[in-house]
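In the previous chapter we treated chains in isolation. Here, by contrast, the input contains two separate entities that must be folded as one system, with a combined length of 678 residues.
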Amino acid sequence: VGLLDFIVEHINEARSANRYSASTLAFLEHVASKAESTKLSVRKTVGNAAVKPNRISTYYRPGLDLFKKHWEIVHLFLKGATDAHALTLSEPFLRFVESELAQVPGMEKAQIVPLLTRDLMYFHNSTRTESEEEVVIDAEPVFPTEYLFVELPYSQGNRLFSNLMVFHEIGHSVFQQMTHAKDPAMNPWVEAAEHSIAAHPSLVDTEVDKETKAQVNDIINTWTQELFCDLFAVRIIGPAYTWALIDLMWLEGSLSGNRPSSTEHPPSILRLSEQLRQLRNDGWLRKADVFPRFKMAFAQTLSKESSSNVGVIGFPPHIGPALLEVIRNVLPSIRKAVKTKTQPCAPRGAKSQDFFRYHSLIEECLVNGIVPSAVIQSDRNAPGPCSIINAAYVVYTKRVDELMQRLEGTNTSDPIDRIKWQKKIESWTIKAVDDCNLMKGLANH
Amino acid sequence: MATGAVLSADEIKSRMNRRNYKIADRRSLIITPNIDLDAVLDADSVDLRLGTHFLLPKESQQPYFVPNRYTRAYVPLGDYLVVPAHQTVLGATLEFIKMPVDVSGMILTKSSVARTFIVVETAPWIHPEYRGCLTLEIANVSNTPVLLYPGRTIAQLILLHTTALKGRGRLIKDSYFGPVYPEAPPSKDPRADLESLGVNRTFEIRRLSSDDADVLASQNRSSAGTPSGSRSD
């Protein structure tokens, strides 16, 4: 009860001192009310236990233990949520992500609750216990399904392009929703994985011990989920996601060399080649010269890595290639599942078509220091936010010099000067996305 | 057009028309998002709306105003911000403006807003070629709290023709690339400004160090030990 008291005080203090997004405020209010009701339940349990002491060990104590276990999970989420004010995360960006997500079947009411992390990495947070149970207090879930918890590194809160990783993280929520709803799109995927593992000699060999076999299954599940999330993000936000991922991989050092893969993520060569395939299918690479940086980074990665010698940390050398083979057999089902989920918000080719129609105009705005919502002439002639973000990423990576050369006293080779103008490009882009949402809202009104 | 002449509605529309002036044309006027130009255009001015981002001054522990201590706040359309009586906040226009090379601008509080004792602009001049959302220094000078609704018109922009700026360089000052959200002023050291005038000594408020406090305490003690009005040799 002392802990619950503290939680309520902590929420009240945080709310009075800081400003939060609507989704975070709703979550904090929900937790505070749950804490109050749990306190009353504990009081009732203690009272009942005094009357029926013979049921303490069989009924009342296990009940209190369950409360404790579930509040430990809430405790974990709460601090990240109350610290999220320090991210200075762009609200229009969050609204944009939510509006894209609202078009994904099963995610119509999703709200993102950002959490702050000290790691230089983005994380999705599952709100379930280790045994995949829902956290329930007083017969009501503590985490209503519409809340999606995404951890963002504190240093990237106000950046636009690195935050595109959020699309990957919400892919995990979509995956979870599909799993719990027993979505039929998952069946061929699961079957392909089981069949492919069973058919692979190095994975069913009698010399492979039971523990390793279980670990192999876990890795297959994790890697296929990661690939699902990558493709989900690419279909929704296009190549800008791939660039953001390359930047992040470079920052944490997982892009270069023949580093063995972790058990958490598939090898970067597989991730990038699969994204490239998706981008090509969606029509993004029909004028590939628009994206020189992507080509360069990708070619660099390909030249350094080869799928035949992919290793996995902590496993014998033959396991890596065997895992890749299994994954390659499962990939068609993953692609199909992604397509089913994203078809309503990203019909094949529609986003790239919009991009190629408007990107020159959007880029022209940005290299002149103008918010690119200026290209909107009427409801029928308005680029989508995805086009704005991708064109902005082209300027961000390729045309910053052009912008800076229009200004007095700037030095294009000074990294401090460059980052100032790159940040400006990000802020103009977020403003344009916000304006587009506003215009779209008006058009639907 | 004569220098100093106020741009008419027709001239404003013409400058905003992409057929006449491309986006990158230095003479183009851009106001975006352009929600409903006819609704906000008067004979000689354009109404501007209140944006959704604010900077709320934090209470200072110093006995003077500290310019860069603010809390950021986002107020979505449909929600409101309460400005208590005699308090100030920084806001910005919802519209991003790009000024033509031959036009200066002036932003004024809309009269209907001014009559609620809200003053939105005290540094109203906008230079040619400036681009950004205009920061609004919003002051509630009334005796009651006032609600501000983002998205409502709050100010009006007057545009004035300036000389053709012949010979003006191709390059633009980087300070003319303004923010899209309200921005706190840079904290400048007054000594640097005054030194250029030859002022070598500038008074400032200083916190007592522990040494100062000891000296002061000993002075107090010694003055307490000297009876008032007494004389000593």
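The helical segments of chain B are 9-16, 37-40, 111-114, 190-195, 210-225. Confidence is low (pLDDT under 50) at residues 225-233 of chain B. Compare these points with the single-chain example from earlier in the chapter.
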